[in-house]
Amino acid sequence: MDLILWRHAEAEIIRPGLDDARRALTPKGERQARRMAQWLNARLADSTRIIASPALRCQQTAQALERKFKTVASIAPEASVDDLLVAAGWPGSSVPVLVVGHQPTLGMAAARLLAGADQSWAVKKAAIWWLRLREREGEAQITLHAVQSVDAL
After folding, report:
1. 99, pLDDT greater than 90
2. Phi-psi region at 85: left, alpha or beta (left = phi > 0; alpha = psi -120 to 50)
3. Domain locations in the chain?
4. For the purposes of burial, counting CB atoms within 10 Å of the CB of 39, is it exposed (0-12), middle (13-18) or buried (19 or more)?
5. Which residue, 9, 42, 56, 113, could crosslink 126 as a Cys pair with Cβ 3.0–4.6 Å?
6. Does the domain made of 2-152 have the CATH classification 3.40.50.1240?
7. For the packed helices 105-115 and 81-88, what is the interaxial angle rounded to 10 degrees?
C-alpha cells in the first residue's frame, strides 16, 4: 500500500476573529499547491484515493490536483495519528491513498510508521512524504519512497 502524506500549502496567519478552519491559502500557497499537484499528477496512479481535511487550506490544496477527493472530518486539525491511519485504510487499502492534512499529525504518522516511535517530525508546508508498505521474504516492510519539498521543484 502506498500512503502519501501531503501537508497543505502556505495559509493565512491566524488572527483574531478568523476561524482556523477558514484560513485560506496565500497567493504563495496557491502557487505551491499547483506546483506540487503537477509533480504528484505525473506520479500518482489513476486509482489513487484522495482524502482531505475539511479545513479550507487543505480543500484548496487538494483542489490543485484537479481530481476527485473526499472530505474526511476525522483528519481535521488536531486529528490523531490513529484517526489519520483509519481514514486512510492503513495498512489494508488495495489502492494508493493520498492524505491532504496538517502538522503535527502528518509528521507523527510518518515517525510512527517509519521509526515505530511517536515523535513530532517536521513536514514542510506543501511537501509530501510517500510511504510504501511492501512484503519482502514474507516480512512486511515500510519504506520511504519519496520526500518532496515544493522548494526543490
Report:
1. yes
2. alpha
3. 2-152
4. middle
5. 9
6. yes
7. 80
